[in-house]
């Protein structure tokens, strides 16, 4: 039996977007069908509802620090390059229903790219990370997205473009790079966020938004597929359905 979800991981309202010009949607509440389904079944739902989220981007843009700031509530000053991939589970309760994000942290080095790409498959969300103080890392974002998309169905993946290290940029520099980032987000249909793992600025809001939007999309898609109105049936998924599968790779 899992321990109860921590109080600061409970989501009862749809969190706000960062920028209305680059948001996946700008509605101010969860989809009414999702709210209704959760309302009916929240009490007797003890099940496994998971979304796989992959985090990609150039080496040293701050992917690992971003995840660890959210998970531990602190900035990890000891730099350790990620080797291959790591994954962490983060548990939430959304509209009274247990929900977990499986956060896959990948290595940005060219030599690990092939290993990492074998873990891209079956993602519900892709987070493309760039460093707000490095234009080249933003320029590479499109390539990261293309690589991640090769393994996924574009119609069912939510995209987030996240600029990190907000603490390092002056307001002028920030405005300039944000203009580019928002333009790219509109083009690739991603939701844009600017955060700082160092100060914590925006990190919690960002992950709450990821959890909420993936939860909403999961429930809506299950409602559509099953034609059922019972969220209890929907989220009673077997663990086997969600176990990370290691695929054989013929590269690297
Ligand atoms: P990754 O390779 O993308 O996983 O990058 P890391 O998370 O390991 O971070 C790379 C470097 O950037 C480390 O030296 C971190 O201390 C630094 N870093 C990460 N996030 C921030 C941030 O928000 N602000 C600042 N100033 N430095 C950061
Ligand atoms: Mg890393």
From TrEMBL:
Keywords: GTP-binding, Nucleotide-binding. It comes from Perca fluviatilis (European perch). InterPro entries: P-loop_NTPase, Rab, Small_GTP-bd, Small_GTPase. It comes from the Eukaryota. The keyword Transferase does not apply. The keyword Amino-acid biosynthesis does not apply. Pfam families: Ras. CDD domains: Rab36_Rab34. One of its GO terms (molecular function) is GTP binding. PANTHER family: RAS-RELATED PROTEIN RAB. This is Ras-related protein Rab-34-like.
């Amino acid at each position: 039996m899992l321990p109860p979800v921590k109080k600061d991981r409970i989501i009862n309202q749809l969190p706000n977007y960062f920028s209305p010009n680059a948001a996946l949607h700008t509605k101010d509440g969860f989809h009414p069908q999702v709210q209704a389904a959760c309302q009916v079944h929240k009490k007797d739902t003890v099940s496994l509802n998971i979304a796989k989220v992959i985090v990609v981007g150039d080496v040293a843009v701050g992917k690992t620090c971003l995840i660890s700031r959210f998970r531990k509530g602190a900035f990890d000053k000891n730099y350790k390059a990620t080797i291959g991939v790591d994954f962490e589970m983060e548990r939430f309760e959304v509209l009274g229903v247990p929900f977990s994000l499986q956060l896959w942290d990948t290595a940005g080095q060219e030599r690990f790219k092939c290993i990492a790409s074998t873990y891209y498959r079956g993602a519900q969300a892709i987070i493309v990370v760039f460093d707000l103080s490095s234009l080249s890392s933003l320029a590479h974002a499109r390539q990261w997205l293309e690589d991640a998309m090769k393994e996924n169905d574009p119609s069912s993946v939510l995209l987030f473009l996240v600029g990190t290290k907000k603490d390092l940029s002056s307001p002028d520099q920030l405005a300039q790079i944000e203009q580019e980032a928002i333009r790219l987000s509109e083009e690739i249909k991603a939701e844009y966020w600017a955060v700082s793992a160092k100060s914590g600025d925006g990190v919690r809001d960002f992950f709450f938004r990821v959890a909420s939007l993936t939860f909403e999309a999961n429930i809506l898609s299950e409602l559509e597929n099953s034609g059922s109105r019972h969220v209890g049936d929907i989220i009673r998924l077997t663990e086997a359905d969600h176990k990370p599968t290691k695929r054989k790779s013929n590269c690297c």
